[in-house]
Amino acid sequence: MSNEVKEVDAVVVGGGFGGTRLLNLLKNKVKLHSVVGIEKGESLGGTWYWNQYPGAQTDTESWVYRFSDEREPPKWNTRYLKGEALREQIVESARKNGTFEDFIFGTEVRSAHYDEGSKRWEISTDRGHKFSATYFVTAVGILNNPNIPTYPGIDTFKGQAFHSARWPKGLDVTGKRVAVIGTGPSGSQITGAINKIVKQLTVFQQRAQYITPVNNRPVDEIERAEIYKNYDTIWDTVFQSLFAMGFVESKKSALEASEEERREVYERVWNKGGGFRFFFETFGDLGTSIEANETAAAFVRSKIAEIVKDPETAKLLQPTGHYGGRPLCAEGYYEAFAEPNVSLVDIASNPVSKLTETGIELQDGKQLEFDVIIFATGFDSVDGSYRNVDITGREGVKLNDVWKNGATSLYGVSVTQFPNLFLVSGPGGPFSNIPPSIEVQGDFITKLILESQARGTKTVEADKEAQGKWDETVQAISAVTIFSKVKSWVQNDNVEGKTKYSAFFLAGLGNYIAKLEEETGGKYPSFRFE
Ligand code: NA7
């Protein structure tokens, strides 16, 4: 590759929902002439490209796990879409809006330096590309950088060991002895999907989770027609609600209901399926009142005891802490433990001491043999996705240094001292169904750029004071929620060495939109145009 620097209007990093949306907006709405997309995978899909493990599917209903303006006649015919269908959806949409060919695949951005003289971003990749761009957009996803335990002996294992987001292409685990380490959404989906085909499945649990059923099911033509008839109303609900899932969130306190009523509500929504539904459609204060939260927690524990017949396993699977963080659901997770080939190892009381050539050794000396070990151990989330890129703003300031003790940005889209850098789903953005939140952020970034162009200014960036205030708001809201009391990637306390810090604005998409509308209405008082 030549050392030639290619001058472009914008570089967009990431080929998932975020990157494809932004590329489309910059090219077709802002009407920039040259926009390049850079994606480390070999195709589009983002999260859904990387997470190709058995059982990978969304837990947001198909009709709202998309952008509101992509309403063409529905192809989907199930309540939730599998990873493969979502990959296809993203590719198809990029082909339709003419942006697929603008992506370079199998390429990672290594550095992006803002040049104060030219007011441009100098961007280089691991394959030797060099770009000079007016705008630099990072849509690198919030769960992208795998977190793999640092067990001694990890390289000595002779079987296959890999992170859940790096499932080897074509690997079939039928008849194999498999270890799944981790019981979050990835670990529980994998467990529910493979337990019947493997010879032996051992689930290593560090902390028990609250996992509700999914209830994926076919959606027939009649139901689809009904959904499309009410589609405007459904999307109004998405944009006015907290979590943008398309259902009406309850405003009633769990504590106002009688025990009988609570049981009826929990039972009904449990049977309906969906983690977010269970947490937010049942009652309105599970996320804010410890007492209310405990009523839901107790219900889930009672369900676990009902489903898992072996009392010792049931007890281990029953969480003891608050019910919070990202609400989980998985198909057939608790049911899997009824199978004779499935067992649970409590690594909270007996941790993994090392990996050996043949498997896993526990602290008490017990040796377990495996053909395959899956690390479903999560991600260095949100700012963790930026860890391997050297992003330098004004005066040589490095983004990873600025974020060292808690990553923050203005509205999840802009960072002071990094002009014309636009983040999609950056720290401090809304915690909600992702495509609608990307849609909202994309529209806002579009408006910011158009405003800058209209003013004849060359750059736009977050005002330092405004960013600080937003960060205070984000952290203060988080502090009054149960989320702040539960260890999870949402609070950045799932990875050793990371500072606990809320990664999200937890007051919902509706309130986030209201805040952005205030900005647009007031001609962007929180931004600096130069
Ligand atoms: P999560 O939700 O972060 O879950 C990771 C799981 O791995 C969780 O059970 C962790 O236990 C466990 N874990 C993490 N580190 C270790 C080590 N070192 N040893 C053993 N177990 C460990 O990640 P997922 O991939 O499941 O889901 C991420 C998101 O993707 C999810 O929220 C969806 O939005 C999609 P812990 O509970 O922390 O004690």
Automatic annotation (TrEMBL):
Name of the protein: FAD/NAD(P)-binding domain-containing protein
Record keywords: FAD, Flavoprotein, NADP, Oxidoreductase
UniProt-listed PANTHER family: DUAL-FUNCTIONAL MONOOXYGENASE_METHYLTRANSFERASE PSOF, L-ORNITHINE N(5)-MONOOXYGENASE-RELATED
Gene3D superfamilies with a match to the protein in the record: FAD/NAD(P)-binding domain
Single Gene Ontology MF annotation: N,N-dimethylaniline monooxygenase activity
Residues that span the membrane, as ranges: none
SUPFAM superfamilies per record: FAD/NAD(P)-binding domain
